[in-house]
Amino acid sequence: MKSNLLILGLIPCIAFVAGCGTEFKYVQTNPTPKPLREVPAEDVVVLTSDHPSEPYAEIGILAVEQRSRLSNDEMPQIIKTLRRKAGKRGCEGVLIQERTSDIKKDHWVGGVASLEGYRATCIVFLDYGEGGG
What we know:
elongated
């Protein structure tokens, strides 16, 4: 009986934690021109206005967004999540395309919420110095 009460007590806590933080989505859109390797978050280049001067290939679309209105994540934390998750997928840089503010039904606490986020392009730099074009 006590274990059932404990489980019932944990359900709201789990739902609350699941509603916090930043959601990340990635879709590969083009073949990779070279084998991908994980890139440390601090090495992922974030570009907001200009394209890089080095040759690069666009390989995917990234989206990060607050999970619900319970999320305390703001721009610095959202960009940190973008860099970390993009790096795990082999993105050497991200080109931020737009800032988003989606009005969505909030499944966690009811009502509607304005969720902040970003859409970006995953890029890898082309290494022509090592036998390439």
